Amino acid sequence: MIDFESARVQIFYATPMPGTKTVSLARCEGYVLAEKIATKEPVPSFDSSAVDGYAVRYEDIETIGKNKPVALNIVGEVRAGGTDDVKLGKNSAVKIFTGAPVPRQATAVVMIEDTEESNGVVFIKKSAKRGQHIRKKGKEFRKGQKIFSPGKYISPPVVAMLASSGVTKIKVYRKPRVSLLVTGDELRPPSATLKPGEIRDSNSFALKASLQSMGIDNIEVMRVKDTEADTRRSFLKALKTADVVISVGGVSVGEYDLVKEILHKIGVRQIFWRVAIKPGKPNYFGVKGKKLIFGLPGNPVSALVSFYVLVRPALWKLMGRTDESSFIVKARLTDTITKLPGRMEFVRGIVNRTESGELFVSPLKSRDSHMIGGMAAANCLIYFPKNCSVLESSSSVDVQVLVW
Question: According to the 3-state scheme, what is the secondary structure of 48-116?
Answer without folding.
Answer: EECCCEEEECHHHHCCCECCECEEEEEEEEECCCCCCCCCCCCCEEEEECCCCECCCCCCEEEEHHHEE
